[in-house]
Every structure is written in C-alpha cells, then in structure tokens.
Amino acid sequence: MSTPHVLLGLLAAGSRHGYELKRAHDERLPRARPLAFGQVYATLGRLQRDGLVATAGQEREAGPDRTAYALTGEGRAALDRWLSAVEPPMPYVASTLFAKVVVALLVADVDRARSYLVAQRTAHTARLRELTAVKTDPTASLNDVVAADFAIAHLDADLRWLHTTLDRVADWHREVHP
Predict the structure, then answer these.
(1) Who wins on pLDDT, 61 or 41?
(2) Is residue 9 a contact partner of residue 25, using CB atoms and an 8 Å limit?
C-alpha cells in the first residue's frame, strides 16, 4: 500500500489534521493495518518537504495545537498520476505461505508438510468464516463489506492453492528428495 498516496487521496476532499487523516484511513480501509500516528506525521512531513501538501492552519481544541494540511496543485497532480497508473500483476511469488510450504518440503517429510498444509487450510477457513460474518452483518458499513470481499477473494485463491498442493505434496516431495 502506498501510504503517501492514500493520505493525498484523503486530503483531496479538503484539509485535515493528522488525527483526522489516521481516523479516515482506518475507517476507509478497515481491513488494512491501522496507521500509527507517528507514520501519519512522518509521511505528512515528507509530503510537505516534497511540495505535495502545505499547512492550512492550526487549531487548538482541548489539547495541543493541531496542524491542518491541504493538498497542493503538485500533490493533486501526483495523486492523479498514481490513480492513472495500472498496477502490474505481481511478477514474483512473494508469499510467506508459499515459502513455508517449499521449506517444509525441503526439511521435513511428506506427513509434516501435509500437516502444515492442513493446519494452514484450517486457519484460512476460519478467517473466511469471520469475513463472511462481517459481510452478512446488517450493521456492517460498505467499507467493511468491500474490504471483506477483497480479503475473501484472496483467501479463496489461497485455499484453492492449498487444496491443489495437498494433492501434489507427495509427488513434490519425491521431486525434492529423489
């Protein structure tokens, strides 16, 4: 995820201070890792340094001063370029799940590799049920439903791969350990 671009997108609707940006991020991307306040302010500092945002005033509510930030013209252009660029499909398999299965086959026997795959399938299935419950919850926001749909699609792909790999694990192990 490109945190700077997400923050630029959140500022496109108008100026906000860091706390509001963090809250908006966590609300709009409910299944993403929540942003830390330090990450928000460090990113805003870099965006300001690069001329993509500018301070838009300060306010003091019951606490410390809060600096509001606004998107600059250059920031809007950077956001538009990012939104116009098509994300290329991942050229490499970069998954801890995949790496663990490969390593399990290198260092363990077929039964241990199979046990790992079964345990992982169980964990994925449990997470799939949790996300399905989110989607069917009548109080779920559309943000939650769209994020759950995205996660479910990825879990479904992983589950299909786990199932196929379970069918191939013995042959794969023989190939690795001739």
Answers:
(1) 41
(2) no
Cβ atoms 135, 15 nearer than 8 A: no
| pLDDT for residue 92 | 59
Q: Is the Cβ–Cβ distance between 35 and 25 less than 8 Å? A: yes
Q: Is 75 exposed, middle or buried (0-12, 13-18, 19+ CB in 10 A)?
A: buried
pLDDT of residue 103: 78
CA distance 71 to 79: 10
- Predicted confidence band of residue 35 (pLDDT cuts 50, 70, 90): confident
- Cα separation values, 21 from 9, 26, 39, 68, 130, Å: 10, 9, 11, 10, 27
In the chain, the amino acid numbered 47 is: L
Quick one: DSSP state of residue 56?
Answer: E
Between 177 and 76, whose confidence is greater?
A: 76
Of 162, 161, 176, nearest to 109 (Cα)? Answer: 176
